[in-house]
Amino acid sequence: MLRRVIYLGLQGNRGFYDRIHAATAGLHRADRNRLVCCGWQLGRLMAQRFGGRHSPDGSRPEAPAIPGDTAPANTFRGRQAYQSNIRAKLMFLVPLPLLLTGIGELRQGDAMGMVAELGGLGILLLAAWLLAEGLKAEAAYNARTVARPPAFPRKIAASCLTATGVFLVALGGMKGGLALALVTAVIAGGAHAFSFGIDPLRKKGLEGVSDFDTERVATAIEKAERLLSETLRAARGIGDRALEARVDTMAATARDMFRAVEQDPRDLSGARKFLGVYLRGARDATVKFSDLYSKTRDPQARADYESLLSDLENSFNAQRAAMLADNRTDLDVEIEVLRERLRRDGVSTT
């Protein structure tokens, strides 16, 4: 019934109103009126054609552009796609039957068996959590050009805890004996490490860059990423999707500058105030604005905060452009030096 009403609403002609009432004649008057109103409005809404600047007619007005931008802001720039590892999530479900067996041991009066079963359950759940965190840390490591290995090897610890949990369950809960428990634990830990791998153990940097410069860049970028994450977390408390999108755009611009610094560590000195002072100020301003705006919804405070975001975004873009210009100058110098050597060797150049 509702489908027919929506279809008639899609026709976009008020002459169909009588036909709608005829189609709903068997209903109570109040129910019929509600159904007609709902179906008509929904049909008319579905009949509206979407338009925008890139549509054929371009009829729908676009949102105002951010001051200083030369292209529409892409709020997804610099983000990494979320990778869902179903095997890692299953590691939270696999040990849950131990809860039932532990309760069964308790009902049978086997206290040691209960401790072994429930203790193994806790250890295996802790191993699953460490595995999930290790996969996140590995994804962040792979996404960056210059990075240090995780301070704590979570995936390796997860494999060791898996072996420990299986050993405890096999020894105390299933009464399998020490030898069988050790073999089962080794197999479980090895299978875990083989399936999920181990944590990155080496520093990652650019060829021709000293370890000292790589360490400086990695430390600075890690601190900047931490400040940026705190800013984004504070922005989630504003309760305004448009402002949250603006903060995401500013964060994407900042991360573009991070990647430029990673590509050329010589730019770190000039970018330190952007990586430290500016981002720290953005975090503090976002925390204070989130607290104020969630209570007062002050339009002037909103305008000032949007202006701050625009200034920060323009500053990050200008700094990144300056770093790229320096890289272009270095390239031109290298090309000219190579051409001069070719001329001295008697090779003609164009």
Kindly describe this structure.
The chain has 350 residues and is mainly alpha-helical. It has twelve helices and no strands. It has helices at residues 2-10, 17-23, 29-47, 86-93, 97-107, 111-143, 154-173, 178-196, 211-235, 241-263, 268-296, 299-344. Mean pLDDT is 76; it is low at 9-17 and 56-73.
Features:
single chain, 350 residues, 12 helices
How much of the polypeptide forms β-strand, as a percent range? Answer: under 5%
In N-to-C order, the SSE pattern is: HHHHHHHHHHHH
C-alpha termini separation? 77 Å
The low-pLDDT segments are 9-17, 56-73
* Rg estimate, integer Å: 31 Å
**Extended strand count:** 0
Biggest sheet statistics: none
Mean pLDDT: 76
Could you estimate the helical fraction of the residues in percent? over 70%
Give the overall silhouette: flat
User: Which class of secondary structure composition applies to the elements?
Assistant: mainly alpha
Number of helices: 12
Give the secondary structure arrangement, pairings included.
Elements: H1 2-10, H2 17-23, H3 29-47, H4 86-93, H5 97-107, H6 111-143, H7 154-173, H8 178-196, H9 211-235, H10 241-263, H11 268-296, H12 299-344
Short description:
The protein is mostly helical. Helices cover 71% and strands 0% of the residues.
